[in-house]
Amino acid sequence: MLKVSKDTIFVDLGGKSEGFADIQEFLDKEGHLTIKQGDLVEVRVASIRDGIHLTKGMKVQGADALDMLREAKENAIPVEGRVSVS
Length: 86
Prior knowledge:
Layout: E1 2-4, E2 8-14, E3 17-22, E4 44-47, E5 52-55, H1 62-74
Parallel strand pairs: 3-5
Antiparallel strand pairs: 1-2, 2-3, 4-5
């Protein structure tokens, strides 16, 4: 379930937890919102600084990926990913 405000999408994470994402990630090319209140959305945790910041899609590499993994470990947040060799 989610709630939509002027600038933010709020996502119910279960229990008493709620995360937020920038509304810009859910706008089409014409600026129309592609979701509505009550829709289910697939998001990922981008950061837990200043609340649980979510993102629709994110690929990180190098030092940024290590920082995110350390932060997830410190806060016991499950992670999912794919390791590749370039």
